[in-house]
Design goal:
about 210 residues, alpha+beta, 2 domains, seven-stranded antiparallel β-sheet, two-stranded antiparallel ribbon, 9 strands
Amino acid sequence: MKQEELEAFLGRSLTQREVTNMTIYLDIARQSLEELVCMEISCESVEEPRIVSTRVGYSTVFTDVFTDVDSVTINGEEVDSSKYYKAFFDSRNGKFFNSIVFNEAFYDSDGITITATWGFQGLPNDLGMLMARLFSNVSKKYSVGSGNVKSKRVRNFQVTYGDLTDDQAFIDANSRTIQKYNMCNIGFIRSGSTCSEHGRLDCGCV
């Protein structure tokens, strides 16, 4: 994510500290966002095969985010595309997907191999907004004199702290978008690359 994109999302200019530490703050923001939604937020698209676990009794196989599928194989045999479709939860018409839905449920726990174009081709605007707001939260935490102080009194010294941490306030304020992408309560969504590991950029490709 570039400086001008961050500033557009935040509606303000970045401070000099934010400009200097932009790469570090963005990386921390990306990691925080991934923890919130239990989803890889990848800034580059990569085409490769990945092994994904099935769930016994279910026909839906959840995966990392992808934009297109080249092939699906089970026990080395390619599955005809008429026997499955791509979806993002219940939506079949988006620009990106997080699952393959088969016509029939699985009754064993063998993994399947999906060759796809993984990652977002540009973050959706709502995820980009979350990234920018997390960036701002990270910046506040590392700023001199930052803290969740609601009020203070000098005489007899009294400090009243806010009822919510910055993290909890962020979650409460952005709960709808977080819930839209949240995969934390889904089992067996982790996939593994069958090729070499690919590093991620220091984030936010809008």
